[in-house]
């Protein structure tokens, strides 16, 4: 036996035995909510990872920025992606990314933690599956680089993303 309980104008809970379902009812196009893109870098990295998971050889993302281009160049240098191209679009720059199929996981890091040389092992343990397996991408005052380059140059910064 199902019971319906309306708690607001557009949300209804349905009780059926031990199962509780939350149903969203659409009351016209005014109530449709589009989420803003708060972190474009994380969106590009999740597009890459989703395309890798389903076996695609190419994906595209928008918008483009210098930070995103630097991160993609690092991924290309470490051979996680084949290549990327930036083309002009009527809505902005469109990034086309060719994939190798070598990425197990990549994502943006939120919040952007401060990276100190003394805390290198802590963040490596937190975001990477094993020692010296994968890269952390860091924004420093000398540019965007990996954790290995930051250790060599002895600079700190903010964590942007990880990939393995």
Concise synopsis of the structure shown:
This protein is an alpha+beta fold and 164 residues long.
Overview of the molecule:
By secondary structure, this protein is α+β, with helices and mostly antiparallel strands. The chain has 3 domains: 2-27, no CATH class; 40-99, Ribosomal Protein S8, Chain: A, domain 1 (2-Layer Sandwich), CATH 3.30.1370.30; 109-163, Dna Ligase, domain 1. Helices cover 25% and strands 37% of the residues. The chain contains 4 helices and 11 strands, in the order E-E-E-H-E-H-E-E-E-E-H-E-E-H-E. The strands form 3 sheets. Strands 7, 8, 9, 10 and 11 form a 5-stranded antiparallel sheet that branches. A 3-stranded antiparallel sheet has the order 1-2-3, with no helix packed on it. Strands 4-6-5 form a 3-stranded antiparallel sheet, covered by helices on one side. Strand 2 and strand 3 (19-24) form a beta hairpin. It is globular. The chain starts with a strand and ends with a strand. Mean pLDDT is 84; it is low at 19-29.
């Amino acid at each position: 036996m199902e019971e319906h309980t309306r708690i607001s104008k557009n949300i209804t809970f349905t009780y059926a035995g031990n199962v509780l379902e939350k149903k969203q009812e659409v009351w016209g196009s005014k109530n449709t909510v589009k989420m803003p893109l708060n972190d474009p870098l994380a969106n590009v990295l999740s597009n890459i990872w989703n395309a890798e998971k389903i076996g695609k050889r190419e994906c595209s993302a928008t918008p483009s920025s210098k930070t995103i281009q630097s991160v993609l160049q690092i991924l290309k240098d470490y051979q996680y992606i084949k290549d990327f191209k930036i083309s002009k679009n009527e809505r902005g720059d469109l990034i086309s990314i060719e994939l190798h199929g070598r990425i197990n996981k990549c994502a943006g890091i939120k919040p952007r933690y401060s990276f100190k040389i003394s805390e290198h092992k802590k963040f490596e343990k937190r975001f990477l599956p094993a020692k010296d397996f994968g890269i952390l991408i860091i924004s420093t005052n000398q540019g965007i680089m990996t954790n290995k380059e930051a250790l060599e140059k002895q600079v700190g910064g903010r964590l942007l993303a990880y990939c393995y």
